[in-house]
Amino acid sequence: MEAASIPPSLPADRHGHGQARPQLGALLLRDGVISAEQLAAALAQKEVEGGRLGEILLRYNIATAAAIARALAEQYGLEFVELARLELDPSATGLLPENVARRLSALPIAIGEDGVVTVAVTDPTDVMASDDLRLALGLQIRFAVVSASDLSRTLDRLFRASLAVEMEADVIPEDEEPELEDITEGDAADAPAIKLANQIIANAIAEGASDIHFEPQPSGMAVRARIDGVMRHVGDVPAGLMAAVTSRLKIMGELDIADRRTAQDGRISIRYDGHPVDLRIAVLPTTFGENVVLRILHRASGRLGIPDLGMHPDAEAVLTRALKQPYGAVLTVGPTGSGKTTTLYAALEYLHDDERSLATIEDPVENQIPGITQVEVNVRAGLTFASGLRTMLRSDPDVVLIGEVRDEETARIAIQAAMTGHLVLTTLHTHNAAASIARLRDMGVDQSLIATSVNCIVAQRLARRLCVHCREAYFPTVAEQIADGLNGVLEEGEYLFRAKGCVECTDTGYSGRVALYEVMPISGRIRHLIEASTEEIFAAAVDGGMITLRDDGIRLCRAGTTSLEEVHRVTGDRLM
Fold first, then answer.
1. List of domains in the chain
2. DSSP letter string over 344-395?
């Protein structure tokens, strides 16, 4: 990113005629982005590999793209811009087609009163790209510098919206999943609603949302999405399009658009950006209209193993010991969207070999694994968890994964299967591991069966990961340590991290999520406390060395992975 000459389209050097331009490394060193040792190592690597210093710093995660872009802008006397925080001029952004903008790593962002176009570029030293831009635009150009990640996200957002509203007229074969923009039920009068609904769904999927909420209000419909576990306002539907957008969503889920007084639910499988995505649709009549929630389920393409989950080594050892048992039940518990199924799939991966027969019954099948018999619940056709499980057990599989124990019948069948030579993996909705025993009792499972058939219970939560680009180190005060249960936990001089916010994380301070685990084996003293209260069981498990959700969260805080605020948010104020 350092170059011998400046492209002719760049402004004159602001550092004075004849004055040497500051080096990129010196600017990063001055700003505290890198240390002298890191700079020396990067320069040495540059001698070996060739290329540019900025590229090496990025490749080895020594500096962020934003920090390098900011220093590069100063080096060449240009403005540094953060596109995520700017209101872009549509008349400017439309000057370059997508393929040209991506090829040249450039985006026109504003047109001045003098007719000069401001173009954000990632590399202002690229002479050929500069010439191509002048030729493509046919206008005078003023350059600004943007980080590559910021530009990429902005291009995705701009052109994804365009993609989402394009309508295809071709008939889709029944045995193929339609691309999102291909679902075109309705006539020309519905086109604005179709385009708006498609755009909202496409944007939410691309942002990594787990669900989208269309919430009717007196003046229109508010749209919120749950991203990294937290709800965010992502748009609005005008009052004039509310009914049409709702009908569009109901058509996608094959629901009755004429019925506006009863609750309905449905599903549809689509392909977005070439990848299969399941949408679960729930419609509920409210005071101001029908509330629609779309839950987004990605069919995972990767296969995680237990070591990939990031558990504490002691907790991982408890889980693997339970999975090595020839029979019994392993439960994962927690609220909806806490990653329970991901943990069960990791357990399947651990158990999958040629010597075992594995089968699953799910709603829906989230990850298709060769060599495993997988069944999808279809209530309309009479295939429920209970009925499918009864038939499945007649084929005598060694391992059975039940997507969720929802009722007393399924719970009884699952526990009985665990007693008769099967290893059963399943999920429950409970607050923590200890509370799961009371939940099973409430579902009518015999207490003696719980003690003898359940191997271990894994409780989990998902907390947001701190953004590595902007997380801020701090030393918690003694009062804060006492309030957060850290008194005596942190070593002298040990610091934690908290969220700050930057363009890389859209000012949230977080990016992605990480799991907190609590693994409770059903053995020893716990087996004799099945009839006891949840509090007694929890206390006995802690005395036996169980790492609680809060303990695991503090471990991740000390590693700089998440913040105390996040641990409080997902675990609550109580220790259990």
1. 24-146 (3.30.300.160), 165-298 (3.30.450.90), 306-462+514-548 (3.40.50.300)
2. HHHHHHHH-STT--EEEEESS--S--TTSEEEE-BGGGTB-HHHHHHHHHTT
Single-letter residue type at 384? T
Q: Is 297 helix (H, G, I), strand (E, B) or coil?
A: strand
Q: CA 49, CA 65: separation in Å to the nearest integer?
A: 20
DSSP string of 214-256?
EEEETTEEEEEEEETTEEEEEEEEEGGGHHHHHHHHHHHTT--
What is the C-alpha separation between 163 and 226, in angstroms, rounded? 22
Closest of 366, 181, 197, 345 to residue 274, by C-alpha = 181
Q: Tell me if the pTM is above 0.70.
A: yes
Distance in angstroms (rounded) separating the CA atoms of residues 533 and 530 = 8
- In terms of phi and psi (left: phi > 0; alpha: psi -120 to 50; beta: otherwise), the region of 97 is beta
Predicted confidence (pLDDT) per residue in 379-419, tens digit: 878 898 889 999 999 888 999 999 889 888 889 899 989 99
Q: What six digits make up the tokens of 4? A: 């011998």
Helices (H) and strands (E) in the chain, counts: 20, 19
Contact 375, 500 (CB under 8 A): no
